[in-house]
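input
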Amino acid sequence: MTDDPDTKVLFKIAADFGKYSCTIEVWLWDGIQGNSVIFSNDAALEEDEELRSLVSKSLALPHDAQFTIARNPENVFVNFFLTNKDERSSFDPSQLTEKEKLAKKESTLRYLKESNERNSNPSIKVKKPSL
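output
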């Protein structure tokens, strides 16, 4: 997603899902907020349904998440969209100062760490991002 000039990446983090390294992105394009789990082509041999299931289970996605899967020579993109039942969860990060953006990023990383510890799912390992 990051190569598209009309796409604004809101959040990006490296992770491992089972035996696959990936990047998780939350992005905004043309007013649509979406999410991508981007695998290198080592996951290319997996069937679409297996990748969908891996992402859904690893991220504990709701049953109504909508998926698309795209492949290119370098990557496999598992894109998913969540129903936004609370409009207050939408925000425009361009309105934030750099300090506010950093504070939100740190807060999100703290939440993910605590959530991962609570769920203690050993198949997901979040890599420490460089700030």
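quick obs: The mean pLDDT is 77.
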